[in-house]
């Protein structure tokens, strides 16, 4: 049952990622992959909130629900592999400088979003 729920939530996360990325691409054009950047930052924040809240209320969700939301939805929503390919694409098409800025910005801002999410999750708990 756990595997099925992780798969379903992972699918929902992937569909959410696809939809949000398409909407961002429709509104913002350019070589910088804004959609993937926003998705990874938002996903880091969401997982931080979930983790922060559950740290103080460990029993409020079953292990299956935690895995479905964290591993499933957040894992399906965020995308390290796409960020890696987009970094490589930027290196090849616009130069290593822009690719490096994208990689560093993704890592740093996603980390800050996770820290903020942990703090918000603790406040919500």
Automatic annotation (TrEMBL):
GO terms for biological process: cellular detoxification of fluoride. The chain crosses the membrane at residues 32-55, 103-124. Na(+) binds at residues 75, 78. Na(+) is not transported, but it plays an essential structural role and its presence is essential for fluoride channel function. InterPro entries: FluC. It catalyses: fluoride(in) = fluoride(out). It is a multi-pass membrane protein. GO terms for cellular component: plasma membrane. GO terms for molecular function: fluoride channel activity; metal ion binding. It is found in: Cell membrane. Its main location: membrane. It comes from the Bacteria. Keywords: Cell membrane, Ion channel, Ion transport, Membrane, Metal-binding, Sodium, Transmembrane, Transmembrane helix, Transport. It holds the Pfam family CRCB. Belongs to the fluoride channel Fluc/FEX (TC 1.A.43) family. Fluoride-specific ion channel. Important for reducing fluoride concentration in the cell, thus reducing its toxicity. This is Fluoride-specific ion channel FluC.
């Amino acid at each position: 049952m756990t595997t099925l729920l992780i798969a379903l939530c992972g699918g929902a996360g992937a569909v959410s990622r696809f939809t949000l990325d398409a909407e961002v691409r429709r509104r913002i054009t350019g070589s910088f992959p804004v959609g993937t950047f926003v998705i990874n930052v938002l996903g880091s924040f969401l997982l931080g909130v979930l983790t922060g809240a559950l740290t103080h209320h460990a029993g409020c969700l079953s292990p299956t629900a935690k895995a479905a939301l964290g591993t499933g939805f957040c894992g399906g929503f965020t995308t390290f592999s796409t960020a890696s390919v987009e970094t490589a694409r930027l290196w090849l098409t616009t130069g290593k400088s822009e690719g490096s800025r994208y990689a560093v910005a993704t890592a740093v801002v996603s980390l800050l979003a996770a820290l903020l999410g942990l703090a918000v999750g603790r406040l919500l708990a």
